[in-house]
Amino acid sequence: MLLVSTELGLYCEAGGFYVDPHGAVERAIITHAHADHARRGSARYLTAAAGEALLRARLGGGVIETLRYGERRRVGDVDVSLHPAGHVLGSSQARLEHRGEVWVVTGDFKRQADPTCAPFEPLAAHTLVIESTFGLPIFRWPAAERAVGEISAWWRACAEAGQTAVLYAYALGKAQRLLASLPRDLGPIYTHGAVERLCAVYRGQLPEHTLPPTQVAVGLARDAKTDGALVIAPPSAHGSPWLRRFGAISTGFASGWMRVRGMRRRRAIDRGFVISDHADWPALLDTVQQSGTERVVVTHGYVEVLARWLREQGREALVARTAFVGEVEEPEGADEADDGAE
Length: 342
What we know:
Blueprint: E1 4-6, E2 9-12, E3 17-19, E4 27-29, E5 44-48, H1 52-59, E6 63-67, E7 72-75, E8 78-84, E9 92-98, E10 101-105, E11 127-132, H2 144-160, E12 164-168, H3 174-181, E13 189-191, H4 193-205, E14 215-216, E15 230-233, E16 249-254, H5 263-266, E17 271-273, H6 281-291, E18 295-301, H7 303-312, E19 316-319
């Protein structure tokens, strides 16, 4: 086996490296900058050039080497290349080739179009290591345009009701994708500091005007008039004192988890919008099929369900337990000191 599952994650002995290790190691290949995949403390990191700025922002230092998408590098006895995963800016799949055998680690990925990152690139593999965050048949995403239209209509309705629309979205990836997709003539847009810091990195990497102008909410007076505005904040801001500055609000949450009946109610959110930065069930199956793989290793999420389904279709399917958690809140949270949390 070219990759084996260890306490620190997926390890490649032939190359002397880990892929998205759970802790500090000598050499790490990082598929993207989300905190469950990019941990501090390793001696050397290798990541896609498009994701270097985000990774530096998250790690705060360390030796980071980069590859352009499709560029090959020999690491130990393994030829390594990184290819677009379509998940967030700079996200990649790791293609590993050793003595004619090819393994592909998808990392987190999605197949829907996203104006803020390179589109997913299908790859052929003998073994495919695939995420399964939303690996249940119930998870089928509507067109992204539908979710954006629903958010826009809700924003308009909030303005007509004299409310501020507070939209919860994960600070890295989802927030920027929504900002790039929403209409720019409905009203001002404010951001939580955790979102704005990452937007600044995106603006430095993307073509000008990909993201609309935004104003960080920390500068707002407590009595500022924000009705008709849209606020983008991480989910952990929900119910926090930070929201008091916006007066009357309506809350919405943009996530694949909104596909689950009752999730919006349990979170006490006014509106739920189904839009995800992960592959849905059909996209997972399509990706396996297009890879032509002989073996599938399912890494996180609904691993047993997807592995069982693949076995029933006659494929070899294994499960590798990891510490990846998929579409959940980033640990920076909403209580950043410079966001004026009380």
